[in-house]
Design goal:
Length: 358
């Protein structure tokens, strides 16, 4: 199991690096004077350190993290608060999501995802009676999620909020929550998200662009239109690796959340299905690991990581395909970005340790 899971991770990373070398070649040349800047930077500062963390955490007994769940969540929340302190936090395009400490820049919301999975797995995996208990189960769960949600809304980062809510609710359900309580929380979450969308014009515009991409094709609908052009141009077998035209300055965030559109353009429907297949393969391996876990904490943790990765991947691919509104979240382990890759590989390292113990 350990070897298969490790192989699934390496294959996905390798595929992502190959596609990044094509997707970012023009943008990297324009911005940095080197066509392979994104590839080198991703490999040296994200993948190599990430694999180091993967190996390190795969060797540490996963049960330690159950004992440290509360301090880890506390550190994640403190990091989230630092975002709003001018000395530490800074923003981009109207969103304040990054922290700079000792000349190291990172996105605290990515660390928060891992911390929350550890905390919820430890909380609900420690005592079955907590799941449906109002005082010791439901109420603390809602308090933590409300605080986390408020911090993400203030950034604002609704895409990450959707991922965090999905992961948290999945862990809650897998832990044995009653369908009645689960349905009530789902309804409340939908209402909250609806209100958050209605009170911000740019979120309403994203919904409008999703419902009718022809609205303002050079404005609010520009990214989704360019993405759909890329995907449509790819057809079944694609235009060929390295031959995308949409990456020539037409498609925004070409190495970020739009990289799936480049994959679909260059490799076609076959490449898009291959991408989905790689995530599903990793998902199946993780589910098998969860089923074989020795305790509830290990089981819930691996299931949480699984929902995190596959949920974020599906949300990204759906948005790029016009099936869901744009959220701005990256494609896990494929999109360019340091914090996301490092944290996901850390979580997968813990999952590998759980697999070792089975």
């Amino acid at each position: 199991m350990v070897k298969s899971l490790f192989a699934g991770i390496i294959i996905l990373l390798a595929f992502g690096l190959i596609m990044l070398s094509s997707a970012g070649i023009i943008d990297a040349q324009k911005k940095f004077g080197s066509p392979y800047y994104y590839v080198y930077h991703q490999f040296l500062f994200s993948i190599l350190p990430g694999l180091g963390l993967l190996f390190l955490f795969s060797r540490i007994n996963y049960k330690l993290w159950k004992k440290l769940a509360m301090p880890i969540l506390f550190m994640a929340l403190v990091a989230m608060i630092l975002v709003f302190i001018p000395r530490f936090g800074y923003g981009l395009r109207g969103a304040t999501r990054w922290v700079n400490l000792f000349d190291i820049t990172f996105q605290p919301s990515e660390f928060l995802k891992l911390a929350l999975v550890i905390y919820l797995a430890a909380w609900f995996g420690g005592n079955d009676r907590r799941i449906s208990h109002l005082q010791y189960g439901i109420f603390p769960f809602l308090v933590v999620m409300s605080f986390v949600g408020a911090l993400l809304v203030l950034q604002p980062d609704i895409g990450t909020l959707l991922v965090v809510m999905t992961v948290a609710l999945a862990v809650y359900l897998f832990a044995g929550a009653s369908l009645k309580h689960f349905s009530m929380i789902i309804l409340a979450a939908v209402l909250v998200v609806g209100v958050l969308i209605m009170i911000e014009p740019y979120r309403i515009n994203r919904i409008k662009a999703f419902l009718d991409p022809s609205i303002d094709p050079h404005g609010i609908s520009y990214q989704i239109n360019q993405s759909l052009i890329a995907i449509g141009s790819g057809g079944v077998f694609g235009v060929g690796f390295g031959h995308s035209t949409q990456k020539l300055g037409f498609l925004p965030e070409v190495v970020g959340d739009s990289i799936f559109a480049v994959i679909a353009e260059e490799l076609g429907l076959v490449g898009a299905m291959l991408t989905l297949g790689l995530y599903l393969f990793l998902c199946i391996l993780l589910i098998r690991t969860a089923r074989a876990a020795d305790d509830d904490f290990g089981k819930l943790f691996v299931l949480g990581i699984t929902v995190w990765i596959i949920g974020q991947a599906l949300l990204n691919m759906a948005a790029m395909s016009g099936i869901a509104p744009l959220t701005g979240i990256p494609l896990p382990l494929i999109s360019y970005g340091g914090t996301s890759t490092l944290i996901i590989l850390t979580g997968l390292g813990i999952a590998l340790n759980i697999a070792r113990k089975t």
